[in-house]
Amino acid sequence: MEEKKDDGVIKFNINWIKEKAFPKEKIEELNYWRKKMFDLGLIGAYENGIGFGNISERTKGNKFIVSGSATGNIEKLTEEHYSEVTEYYLNTNSLSCVGPIKASSESLTHAAIYSNAKEVNAVIHVHNLKLWENLYDKAPGTREGIEYGTVEMAKEMKRLLGEKETKEKKIIVMKGHKEGIISFGKNLEEAGKIMLKYFNEVKQ
Prior knowledge:
The chain is an alpha+beta fold. The chain has one domain: L-fuculose-1-phosphate Aldolase. It has 6 helices and 11 strands. It has helices spanning 24-39, 107-116, 129-135, 151-161, 164-169, 188-203, and strands at residues 2-6, 9-18, 44-45, 51-52, 54-58, 64-67, 82-89, 94-99, 122-127, 171-173, 180-185. The strands form 2 sheets. The protein has a 9-stranded mixed sheet, with helices on both faces. Strands 3-4 form a two-stranded antiparallel sheet. The protein is globular, with a radius of gyration of 15 Å.
């Protein structure tokens, strides 16, 4: 079990079982929407090289495939860049994943959404300052000071998904994670179109 850290703060405990890549067809739609977000700068990397943004899709039960750790700066992902989260424990901030790469550091936030909204089958997390600022007081949001990848963030997802507005708008502003925004839907197309809708409104 490995502790995932960020600036000295433990984000989650990860049990990674390294296995061969998924069949190409299993990640085609994930890659389609992930590339759209990348081309718009919603997924990518900062000047310091730190990547941002990730995407996931429910597979069976509460399991899901998610883009791997430190892949934000890669323009087009391959089968080698995805991992399946097979188990997670939100109260202890731990998870198990299987695949050629470690799951994204945001995986527990995705997990919290899947476990609290059975109708949701896809989650997209992006970064964009202008969109984040625009939605800050207009869309459902986490409490300020709640950092990503923490037990508190998972609890915030549960709280928000219990609210009617969140289920209707299908978008969440991560107020304690500057620039962070999450969209979700019954499938990747819905989650992707919701994110593009809000992004295009800000562009105009």
